[in-house]
Amino acid sequence: MALKKELLEILACPKCKGDLEYRESENRLLCQKCKLAYAIKDGIPVMLIDEAKPI
After folding, report:
1. Which residues, 6+ apart, have CB-to-CB distance to 18 below 8 Å?
2. Comparing C-alpha atoms, which of 16, 18, 14, 24 is closest to residue 46?
3. Could you give the dihedral angle defined by the CA atoms of residues 49, 39, 35 and 20, in that order, rounded to the nearest 10 degrees?
4. How far is CA 45 from CA 23, 32, in A?
5. What is the pLDDT of residue 11?
6. What is the mean pLDDT of the chain?
7. Is residue 28 scored above 90 in pLDDT?
8. What's the rounded mean pLDDT across residues 36-46?
9. What CATH number did the domain enclosing 39 receive?
10. Which domain holds residue 50?
């Protein structure tokens, strides 16, 4: 399930407040600055720092 463009425009990394890169094929959002990946579960981004995976 793809995220809406409007949602992607307002989302920011909860750790550094930087931009996120949407990887639809991997179903996650990436913060290149923090080197963290945030999962998307059932179409909802899980924006918890403790749940993020290092990339």
Report:
1. 12, 31, 32, 33, 34
2. 14
3. -100
4. 12, 17
5. 96
6. 95
7. yes
8. 95
9. 2.20.25.10
10. 5-54
